[in-house]
Amino acid sequence: MTAATHSTLFPQVPETADAVLDGLDPEQREVALALTGPVCVLAGAGTGKTRAITHRIAYGVRSGRLQPASVLAVTFTNRAAGEMRGRLRQLGAGGVQARTFHSAALRQLQFFWPKAVGGDLPRLLERKIQLVADAAARCRVRLDRNELRDVTGEIEWAKVTQTVPADYPAIVAKSHRDAPRDPAEISQIYAMYEQLKRDRSVIDFEDVLLLTVGILQDRHDIADQIRSQYQHFVVDEYQDVSPLQQRLLDLWLGDRDNLCVVGDASQTIYSFTGATPDHLLNFRTRHPAATVVKLVRDYRSTPQVVHLANGLLSQARGRAAEHRLELISQRDPGPDPVYTEYADEPTEAEGTARRIRDLIAAGVPAGEIAVLYRINAQSEVYEQALADAGVSYQLRGAERFFERQEVREAGIALRGAARAGGNDSLLDDVDDLPAQVRAVLSTKGWTSQPPSGSGAVRDRWESLAALVRLAEDFARAKSGATLSDLVAELDERAAAQHAPTVQGVTLASLHSAKGLEWDAVFLVGLTEGMMPITYAKTDEQVEEERRLLYVGVTRARLHLALSWALSRSPGGRASRRPSRFLKGLRPGSGSLGTVASGASGSFERGAAAARRGPRGPVLCRVCGATLTEAGAMKLLRCEDCPSDMDEGLYERLRDWRSEQARELGQPAYCVFTDKTLMAIAERVPATGGELSAISGVGARKLVRFGDDVLAICAGGEGGAGVDET
């Protein structure tokens, strides 16, 4: 969740240009007043960089020094661009273009292609992985799914670093890049991929930038036309600019220097995509007269969280570390970070889910809690643990708010009610705006009390509840606002992708959490080999992993928990070690000079792990091999060992599960996962004890579903109903 969506209140549009500056701290105000020449803003995490640059643009527009149509603000994600447009609109500067690099370039390419090249722009290829697979097949190279993804990523890296296929092997050798396959082989696939694109008349996202650069380089008349429109440029997250994006920015600018860049070298975490902090670090060299402002007042996190973040970077090495910013928390003190060691990964997930449930019970909204991990493959065990604990969650990267079916339906209903006005019987005896919205949305599934459990029904209710909260905030901020005014507001927000808050614990990778924040953050799986990741070999790769953990730490406002497991699976050898990045920071982890003296927080060993006691290795019941994968341990056999599953029983269990999920208003996996049903169908338990021995059947599910499952296994139909208690 962003700072913008943390509060859904609607601030009043400032009445004057000077009023735009109200509430800015001295450094943010300095940014806002620096309207000409090159400006470099070095902004630490949580220091209000988006606030500073949007107020800078708005002040320039409101004071008449900047024309809205002459400003182009670029960033890296649609969400960030949408947030920027939303804030500018609230400040009275709604005519400013705020886009991603790709979006801005695509608009220019679509407009100028007929003039520069002729004909229609080739079709944009949204996903290139199938075309890469075809190219590999043409080259007689066999790639499995993971290799295909890696080679696709390598082609993307080559294109954003402006490396052509023939030069790829030499560039890889020169840069000491760890290629996923033989560079000559990748070069061959890359060349064939480019040939197939030409044959099929398609372009990819990297081509959007490359072709725009090519047109601006070759057609000075077109370059001049773009430069005559855009006089001032703002680049957010400048540490993530690739060489290709920098080349495009240089062409947009021409020989002018009205450029404001904002970034933090300590948050450079996308080098695998070609991003480099060098452009940010070299900005003052390229622009000796640049105004440089440092933002170090952290308004997001407590002193305890900020202390840990500063300590983490104090151990960093390299050029980015030399430019690190020492943050100063502006918040009241909060709880110390909690460090917890668990026996194994399932226990870590269960312990995390229990802590989350306790936080929610203590009043922390589920939407203000996040579980962050290094790789997406770690999410499954946390999805299962949260589902078992009855906690709703959402995976980062899910469907956009305004594209959800229930939100679209709600918008249609609100628009219809606004048109009908006093002729809509739903609005009889309903006066104020929030009550009108509640009345309309009650026909779409909104109720004053949330439905029990999690899943699809709860997700739908949460979306509608977010619209109700939005209406309440809108009515407080806009006295006398009508239903039509709210519909117009929703339309503008949908266009800007400025979504209201939806409740549900967020599960996300550390990379995808960049730019977001929550009241409580759980950083999980912090072991050597995962943080830093095992393939981080060079010093710079390890330092990027440290920066990735720093980004994770600085997502937390108040509560911060860090945990790791000593083994992957129950009964496994406790051979793992906590991440080296925590040494000297967590209590009892040894001395690193001044860092250790400031170590704070509490260290725990997972209570569940202590109760569980030692276990032997989990063995395949077919071949006897030691099992390590969670799915295999649930089945008690290797995935590729023959199954003795009763197919008919499995289908009956699936049908029963579907019915239970409908009654509960939850996704099917919240009842039992497919793997758990497979394990049941293979082992056909006859007693509660045999059923409870199957992984995924905990005590709560045994009470709720045990009788039904045993009845189905015995040849019956089950269906005794769901015991909500």
Terminal Cα span: 33 Å
Q: Biggest β-sheet, characterized?
A: 7 strands, parallel
Class from helix and strand fractions: alpha/beta
Mean pLDDT: 83
Per the principal axes of the C-alpha atoms, what is the gross shape?
A: globular
Q: Please report the total strand number as a whole number.
A: 17
Q: Segments where pLDDT lies below 50 for 5+ residues?
A: 1-8, 592-597, 608-615, 720-725
The strand line-up of the biggest sheet is: 13-14-12-15-16-11-17
Query: Percent of residues in helical segments?
Result: 40-55%
**Rg estimate, integer Å:** 28 Å
How many distinct helices? 31
Range of strand content: 5-15%
How do you describe this structure in short?
The protein has 31 helices and 17 strands. The chain has 725 residues and is of the alpha/beta class.
Explain this structure.
Helix content is 46%, strand content 11%. The chain is built from 31 helices and 17 strands. The longest helix has 22 residues, at 456-477. The protein is globular.
Descriptive keywords:
seven-stranded parallel beta sheet; 31 helices; disordered C terminus
Helices and strands in order, then pairings?
Blueprint (H helix, E strand, L loop, with lengths): L2 H4 L10 H4 L5 H8 L5 E5 L5 H14 L8 E5 L2 H13 L6 E4 H16 L6 E2 L4 H10 L6 H16 L7 H8 L7 H18 L1 E2 L1 H14 L1 H10 L2 E4 L7 H11 L5 E5 L14 H4 L1 H4 L4 E5 L1 E2 L4 H12 L4 H4 L5 E2 L8 E7 H17 L7 E5 L5 H10 L4 E3 L9 H16 L12 H9 L14 H22 L5 H14 L8 E5 L8 E6 L15 H15 L2 E12 L26 H4 L4 E4 L1 H6 L17 H6 L11 H18 L9 H10 L4 H5 L6 H15 L12
Parallel strand pairs: 1-7, 1-8, 2-3, 2-6, 4-5, 6-7, 9-10, 11-16, 11-17, 12-14, 12-15, 13-14, 15-16
